[in-house]
What does this fold into?
Amino acid sequence: MITLKLNLPQVKSSIINYNIIDGKIIGLDDDKLYDFIINIDGDLIIGKNHTKLSNKSKYVLFAGEIKSHDGKIYHINNNSGHYQPNLLETMKFIKYFKTYNILSKNLILEYFNNFIK
It folds into this structure.
């Protein structure tokens, strides 16, 4: 579980309605960068603003950003200034996406470790 590390105010927020059907994530714009969190119940929530997506929860299983194309996620990172997932936490969440078969075979995993403190 990842703990909220930086509680800065954020203004804009939105949650995207999506479905996962036959190994494809439906409802996301191709090649658009989205924030996401996996909450402590294991639910994937996609949109804008990590702390709002988590309902201002102190804990999440993961937080970062994704891009998809044709229903497959091809880019994932741990870029969440609020939750700041470390490398081990980043590697664990890949298993979550694999269970839904929504990862592209050409997945790009980007890791950030220089968060503002």
